[in-house]
């Protein structure tokens, strides 16, 4: 892990993300790119629309000064920081910055239980998740000394999720965490027999070229199963696959992904399929 990106809006939540990024950076000798969106639209920076360029410069100076003060924190001492300010609030740019700097991870803050649903329904975090080709770690609470010893990764074990699974395996090795794989079996139309589940898992692991154990966890819904299992194994992170711009993977159709993110008390990390 060499480069982390932290989008900040000077909120308490973005500072939570910054603390986690700082903790990871210190452990892995990584650089942290602190990205702030200035939120200027085209009309505001175009003199033809009646907005003077000097006003844009003034706003940029103000943002630079505010960001400098925001980064003046004791926990950022000895962390290599690079502040980046973008004119627009276009969150696809986060992925562009990630590609340009070959970032390994985006760390983003979000509100707690009530607000975390915004990750998947029109929020800034949702836009970042959908556009990001690198993993996105969403932080909901203050975790100054971020440790990951147990990591739950849940998916439907259809072969389309293999790319996301491989990223999760690499991520767990990077953090030195024990990876717990889980398939949640539920009653109703999505119910599978034990034989069918093992057949699917075997095909999945064979394609992924991994020999790992997968827990089959029975519950009344997928989201409850993922959260209950994660609590049972004392997970520090819950990982889920996404299709990026295409939306949540088939395993997380409807509100399942939203519910997992909403009700999870621990960080959630997404991996693009």
UniProtKB/TrEMBL annotation:
Domain (UspA): residue spans on this chain: 1-140, 150-271
Top-level taxon: Bacteria
Record-linked InterPro entries: Rossmann-like_a/b/a_fold, Universal_stress_UspA, UspA
SUPFAM superfamilies (UniProt xref): Adenine nucleotide alpha hydrolases-like
Signal sequence annotation: none
Family statement: Belongs to the universal stress protein A family.
UniProt-recorded name of the protein: Universal stress protein
Organism: Poritiphilus flavus
């Amino acid at each position: 892990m060499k480069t982390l990106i932290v989008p900040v809006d000077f909120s308490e939540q973005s500072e939570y993300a910054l603390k986690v990024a700082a903790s990871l950076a210190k452990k892995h000798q990584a650089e942290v790119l602190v990205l702030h969106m200035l939120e200027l639209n085209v009309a505001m920076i175009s003199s033809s629309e009646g907005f003077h360029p000097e006003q844009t410069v003034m706003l940029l100076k103000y943002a630079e000064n505010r960001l400098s003060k925001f980064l003046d924190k004791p926990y950022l001492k000895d962390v290599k920081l690079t502040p980046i300010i973008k004119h627009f609030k276009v969150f696809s740019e986060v992925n562009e910055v990630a590609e340009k700097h070959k970032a390994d991870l985006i760390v983003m803050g979000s509100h707690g239980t009530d607000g975390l649903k915004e990750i998947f329904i029109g929020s800034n975090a949702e836009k970042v998740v959908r556009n990001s080709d690198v993993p996105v770690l969403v932080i909901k609470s203050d975790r100054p000394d971020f440790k990951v010893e147990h990591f739950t990764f849940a998916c439907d074990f259809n072969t389309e999720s293999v790319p996301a699974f491989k990223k999760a395996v690499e991520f767990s090795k990077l953090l030195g965490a024990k990876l717990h794989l889980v398939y949640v079996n539920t009653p109703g139309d999505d119910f599978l027999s034990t034989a069918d589940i093992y057949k699917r898992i075997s095909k999945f692991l064979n394609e992924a070229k991994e020999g790992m154990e997968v827990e089959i966890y029975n519950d009344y819904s997928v989201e409850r199963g993922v959260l209950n299992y994660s609590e049972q194994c004392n997970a520090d992170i819950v990982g889920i696959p996404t299709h990026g711009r295409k939306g949540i993977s088939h395993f997380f159709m409807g509100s399942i992904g939203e519910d997992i993110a909403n009700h999870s008390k621990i960080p959630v990390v997404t991996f693009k399929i």
